[in-house]
Amino acid sequence: MFSVEQLQAFVTTVETGSFSAAARHLNKAQSVVSQHIINLEIDCNAVLFERSGRYPQLTDAGKRLLPQAVALLSQHQRLTNSALALNDETPREITIALDEGIPLKVITNAVAKLKNKYPNVSLEFLSASSLDIIDMLEDEKPLTGIIFSELSIPSYLDYECIGSVKFDLYIAKSHPLAGQGCKNIDGLRLHRQLLIRSRNTQTSSFQLKISPDVWYADNYFVLLELSIQGYGWCLLPNHVAVEEVQKGTLIKLPIEFEEMGWLANVDMLQHQRHSNLDVFKELRNLLRHVL
């Protein structure tokens, strides 16, 4: 019967595109990965990859097996994480990592109730971009991440939506677009865009690159300052921009398509290694629908 190692070799080969890339990802010899897949084909009595070209291509049988293999590996990972957590006690310190674009006040109000129930637990607060927080959770720290929703979330993370934050396009009052406005999105391509990306240069799935001229930052308050100084237009959470709008140094971008902004969903993430602990369940309960 096929093994978890065989399924890992199969799925990783599909994801990485080759046997050699799968071997590097799994930190195994290529011959080991190839043999796992050969054994899986024997167990399944079917050829899973067409090997005549430079890179292996899934056969029809491979395509049918793939979603089942992915689901089984995901469940195996959850079982492993649950088993590791069986004897865990409440950690002495937990971390809450928050995207800078999410209002901190509503989070800290909820956390105050957590301290009443778990007075001996120390809290650490970190701020980072949403993508950087996802990377931090890979290390299995006792950490809760609060991020803007991403299209791709690793399977070892549990997550749920806790609300949304309104974004709009903003520019400095001195910016050329402030006087002439913008008829449509094509007009934005003519001016520099200020954009969020992670420290390893990943861009968010909802922060689209529109202009060919882009400056990057890893938090919204840097974008705010750059936009105030007139260096470009950017998409900002309304609560980040509101004070400068009231001062008159920043304005919503005048545009014929009035609603260029949108609501960004906010997700709470926890590693499966810790998500079943009572303190993390309580934190999830307190943070639900705070936004």
TrEMBL record:
It comes from the Bacteria. Pfam families: HTH_1, LysR_substrate. Keywords: DNA-binding, Transcription, Transcription regulation. CDD domains: PBP2_LTTR_substrate. InterPro entries: LysR_HTH_N, LysR_subst-bd, WH-like_DNA-bd_sf, WH_DNA-bd_sf. The keyword DNA repair does not apply. GO terms for molecular function: DNA-binding transcription factor activity; transcription cis-regulatory region binding. Residues 2-59 form the HTH lysR-type domain. The keyword DNA-binding applies. Belongs to the LysR transcriptional regulatory family. This is LysR family transcriptional regulator. It comes from Marinomonas ushuaiensis DSM 15871.
